[in-house]
Design goal:
The complex is a heterodimer of chains A (about 110) and B (about 350).
Chain A: E1 4-10, E2 16-22, H1 29-35, E3 57-60, H2 71-79, E4 87-89, E5 103-106
Chain B: E1 2-3, E2 6-9, H1 13-24, E3 29-33, H2 41-44, E4 50-51, E5 60-61, H3 62-73, E6 79-82, E7 86-91, E8 97-101, E9 106-109, E10 111-114, E11 120-123, H4 131-134, E12 153-157, H5 161-170, E13 176-180, H6 190-201, E14 206-208, E15 211-217, E16 224-229, E17 235-238, E18 241-244, E19 248-251, E20 262-263, E21 266-268, E22 282-284, E23 289-290, H7 298-316, H8 327-330, E24 332-333, E25 339-340
Parallel strand pairs in B: 1-9, 2-3, 2-10, 3-6, 10-22, 12-13, 12-18, 13-14, 21-23
Antiparallel strand pairs in B: 4-5, 7-8, 8-9, 11-19, 15-16, 16-17, 20-21, 24-25
The chains are: A alpha+beta (about 110), B alpha/beta (about 350).
């Protein structure tokens, strides 16, 4: 559908998935991963998307203009493991038309 | 040995509402939870966050929901084993079960209901190569007895409330307290942050930020840690104890080894009937279970709890007939002797 954006997600086993993510459902990256079952249920989005766990941590591989990090996300990432400079919490990244071509990699499970 | 009618594993909203529904059927409940307080995720992860999909509550804070559920089930006098994790289950010859916690507390009941949510909350361990070797040899993920640290050198790492609070508390007990955090900012309560600043200024807490513990050193016991400040080379700090406080994360844990059918990190149940698992007498309700169309919502947990209690009634009172009573009509008789009922209408003739 035309409101979909194409994004690439590398799962925790290193497998690359090309995904058509809808922009009209107020979804975030964590929810897209669950929608397409790219990580086992119960290992991602544990807190439900409140930036209160780091189970949806991902590495952003492209230079898309993402929403600026809020305090909660920054604090959570400061206590998470396997954090890299390009780490973000998937639940804090909304799927919008600007996300076309976004590439991310899921961080290892805690 | 603690004995009860329904043993509930997990004291979150679903577990607490089970106490109420079981109470209406005159069944007594006991709850086990790995956390030190009731409420599950609602009190551990998001007590101050609002929930908007609890029927009849346009908005309620998760912490308040816990309070109200506790109040609602109070007259049915639930027992609690808190701060202990259900570890093993053994079926007895009489058909009942014995559940033993990690601290050895034993519970006996004819019906076991797992209302375990996402699992039991376990401390998150930092990714240090040999950290498991030093557990109980200087490394601890939670503080059980602060006296253990008297006159010891202690290093705490983390940036949340528990790291700040324990750094403050131990500055009075330990000979030396060092707090290490990956950032300069802490996300604890403002009071705690100010207090740590004050203790740092007085020289009672050594603060190392932004830095990370990158290594553990010691032959048989922890003797030192290696700390790396961002952009600098590692330094070694002598210490007796290292306490990483990085919060808790839920794990299905030992329940996963009970012989229950697991799918997608959840326990498969019969949703056409009573939310029983593949082991008769063991039920699973709330976020911990799965079935076609499952939604992990508190309100679904309440419904599952209600139907499960009917099945528990039949197991405990075999062959006994049951007819549904409405609380509005029959009131509630608490196990504590209290009675709640609708006020009687006044009948008076008008002349």
């Amino acid at each position: 559908m035309d409101q979909d954006v194409q994004i690439k997600i590398t799962d925790r086993d290193g497998k690359l998935h090309q995904i058509a993510a809808p922009t009209d459902m107020a979804l975030n990256i964590m929810e897209v991963v669950r929608l397409y079952e790219l990580a086992p249920e119960g290992t991602i989005g544990i807190c439900g998307g409140m930036a209160m766990c780091a189970s949806c941590q991902c590495y952003v591989l492209t230079e898309h203009p993402l929403r600026e990090m809020q305090d909660e996300e920054e604090a959570m990432l400061s206590e998470a493991f396997n954090v890299k400079p390009n780490s973000r919490l998937g639940c804090q990244i909304q799927i919008t038309p600007e996300m076309e071509g976004l590439e991310i990699e899921l961080a290892p499970e805690d | 040995m603690i004995t009860t009618d329904i043993l509930i594993i997990g004291a979150g909203p679903t577990g607490l509402f089970t106490v109420f529904e079981a109470g209406l059927l005159k069944l007594k409940c006991h709850l086990i939870d790995a956390l030190p307080q009731a409420g599950g995720q609602c009190s551990e992860i998001y007590p101050k966050k609002p929930i908007y999909d609890i029927p009849a509550y346009p908005e309620i804070l998760a912490g308040d929901l816990t309070e109200k559920l506790l109040e609602q089930c109070k007259q049915f006098e639930p027992g609690f084993t808190l701060g202990e994790r259900a570890e093993t289950i053994e079926k007895q010859t009489d058909g009942s079960f014995i559940v033993t916690t990690n601290k050895g507390t034993q519970h006996n009941a004819p019906v076991v209901t797992i209302a375990g949510g996402l699992g039991s909350f376990e401390p998150r361990k930092p990714l240090l190569e040999n950290i498991e070797f030093y557990e109980d040899k200087g490394v601890a993920y939670m503080i059980k007895d602060p006296e253990v640290y008297r006159n010891k050198k202690v290093v705490i790492s983390g940036g949340g409330d528990s790291a700040l609070d324990w750094a403050i508390f131990l500055s009075d007990v330990a000979s030396d307290v060092t707090l290490i955090h990956r950032r300069n900012e802490f996300r604890g309560a403002l009071d705690s942050v100010d207090k740590v600043q004050e203790l740092k200024n007085k020289g009672l807490i050594t603060l190392i930020t932004p830095a990370e513990v990158t290594g553990l050193i010691g032959e048989t016991q922890l003797q030192a840690i290696e700390v790396t400040k961002s952009g600098e080379s590692p330094v070694t700090i002598e210490t007796d104890c290292f306490i990483p406080l990085f919060g808790l994360s839920p794990k299905l844990g030992p329940i996963g080894d009970w012989g229950l059918e697991i799918e997608k990190n959840a326990i498969k149940v019969n949703n056409a009937l009573d939310y029983q698992t593949n082991i008769p007498g063991i039920f699973a309700i709330g976020d911990v279970n799965t079935y076609p169309g499952k939604l992990k919502l508190i309100l679904c947990g309440f419904h599952e709890a209600t139907l499960m209690c009917q099945a528990a009634y039949q197991i405990i009172n075999p062959g006994k007939r049951y007819v549904l009573k409405y609380t509005t009509v029959s009131g509630i008789d608490g196990f504590d002797g209290t009675r709640k009922e609708a006020p009687k209408a006044v009948v008076k003739s008008i002349n």
